[in-house]
Amino acid sequence: MTADTATRLEGDFDYIVVGAGSAGCVMANRLSANSNSRVLLLEAGGKDNWIWFHIPVGYLYAMGNPRADWLFQTEKEPGLNGRALNYPRGKVIGGCSAINGMISMRGQAQDYDHWRQLGLTGWGWDDVAPIFKRLDGHFLGDTEHHGGSGEWRVEQMRVKWDVLDAVTKAATEMGVPTTQDFNTGDNEGVGYFHVNQKRGLRMSVATAFLKPVLSRPNLRLETGVLVERIVFEGKRAVGVQFRQNGKLVEARARGEVVLSAGAIGSPQILQLSGVGAPDWLTALGLPTLHERPGVGRNLQDHLQQRAIFKVTGVKTLNGTYHSLIGRALMGMEYALFRSGPLTMAPSQLGIFTKSSPDHERANIEFHVQPLSLDKFGEPLHRFPAITVSACNLRPTSRGTVRLRSGDPAAKPVIAPNYLSTPEDRRVAADAIRVTRRLMKQPAMQAYRPEEYLPGASVGDDEASLAKAAGDIGTTIFHPVGTAKMGLPSDPMTVVDNRLRVIGLERLRVVDASVMPTITSGNTNTPTIMIADKAAQMMIEEGR
In sequence order, what DSSP letters do the residues of 312-365 get, joined into one string? Predict the structure, then answer.
């Protein structure tokens, strides 16, 4: 349809924010704090009025459920020996923070200093650390590294497992130091993750930032909205067109349009609007409004090698899960005390270390779980086991996100290009070696760990381990980089250091897609920081 067939949404808005996920909820909160600024927030999903959005273990039911998940898949990946992966993305207010692992992680100081070294003024560790601290509502209170009064609640785990304590000891026997806090700028060490929860309930960005301010008369939320394109007058963004309840609607912005649809959604919308690589657009019969070949390129993600070890003589969740009495007790513990397995994040124990001495700082992250299963959405195994997943924190492989067709409802072509570089294959092989060494430490021997995946038959040579990594590798759900921030001199740059789309007016991208390189850890909290910083920049500019 053309613009003249669209119904005009009543009202004038200063800002239109597309996507009520981890970035969009923060943007809506901060921009609407000025009562003179009218903000329209558009979300493709619905309200978070389902119990499994709030009970922490609900991610098991949300991923793969069309009520909560876009149900994307990758293409068949050569580096994964021809396998395609499910690629969960949140489709609800709160976005991925409503279905993710709840792990509070900033990354390493050097990640942000590297951004600054790329020429991105204002994005070094010294610039962003105060923002992280300001956002914190941390159980440690006001300290050197944390704040106690911010909206983004951080708490300790509310469950402990003897087998994870043993893994902790095994890591120290291997030379990894213990840590009580992964978020000081140096996350090397072993310890329990801190989580975004509040008294045993998930803390999503919708809970933290959006719902407390929805009563503001200058903030309007529309759900069930599929944005089809940005409306331009020349090179200036003046609004968006979206489909809601089968009708085409146009909303106008006096100030700016902000894309916060995520590392998959934002490049889709840009491409649908004619902003991207001309050859990609022409192949689909779409006109090019503005040539920006970096849109949809530079996709980075954390690939984990999900190793599983059978154990004996110690409790794991596998046994409790398959026991009717065990399930009843879990439910009772949660109902009475808001503690126990129903409060569990997907991973409880973290280990940040080096895959080999060649690295100057921790380059792999372990997520250790007192459970095992073939894949999310399937039942836990009937034998006692733990999962010891290692991911490469700074992969060198780069993938793409591009339109499958000109139909805005069509799912995109997602090709992460995992393990496509010799460096990534080497780190993956080394990570499996480190995993095996961890399980051979004295602290684990009482539980007789037996390698189930990739399997004891897999040799220790480079070729065997690289193939095994392709067989057991899976996403850890951290796509970033598809509308990267950079200098205008770089033809692959999409936004400048103030997150403005280069060559266009009044259009910004504010979400994980702007990261030039992926952070060394879970990516949700860095995305929230990016949004808070972007909103402050926009407010300072007085638009």
Answer: -SS--HHHHHT-HHHHHHHHHHHHHHS-SGGG--S--EEEEE-SSTT-SS--EE
For residue 198, the 8-state DSSP code is E
Give pLDDT < 70 ranges for the chain: 1-4, 377, 543
Within 10 Å of residue 277's Cβ, how many Cβ atoms? 19
Predicted local confidence at residue 461, as pLDDT:
94
pLDDT value at residue 12: 86
Give, in order, the Cα–Cα distances in Å from 455 to each of 198, 355, 376, 432.
Answer: 39, 20, 20, 11
DSSP-derived 3-state class of residue 510? coil
- pTM attached to this predicted model: 0.97
CA distances (Å), 316 to each of 321, 341, 449, in order? Answer: 9, 10, 13
Give me the DSSP letters along 16-75.
Answer: EEE--STTHHHHHHHHTTSTT--EEEE-SSB---SGGGTSGGGHHHHTT-TTTB--EEBP
Residues 306/389, Cβ–Cβ less than 8 Å: yes
- Phi, psi of 236, rounded to the nearest 5 degrees: -105, 130
Give catalytic status of residue 146 as yes or no. no
Q: What was the pLDDT predicted at 375?
A: 80
Helix axes 125-135, 524-541, angle to 10 degrees: 100
Q: Is 469 exposed, middle or buried (0-12, 13-18, 19+ CB in 10 A)?
A: buried
Kindly report the number of other CB atoms within 10 A of residue 230's CB atom.
Answer: 26
> Catalytic pick from 114, 194, 290, 478?
478
Q: Is the separation of the CB atoms in 475 and 87 below 8 Å? A: yes
Quote the pLDDT of residue 6: 85
C-beta atoms surrounding 423 within 10 Å: 14
Q: Among all chains, which residue has been given the structure tokens 């050097």?
A: 110
pLDDT tens-digit map of 286-335: 999 999 999 999 999 999 999 999 999 999 999 988 888 988 999 999 99
Pairing between strand 197-198 and 189-192?
A: unpaired
- Apex 476 CA angle, 50 and 17, nearest 5: 55
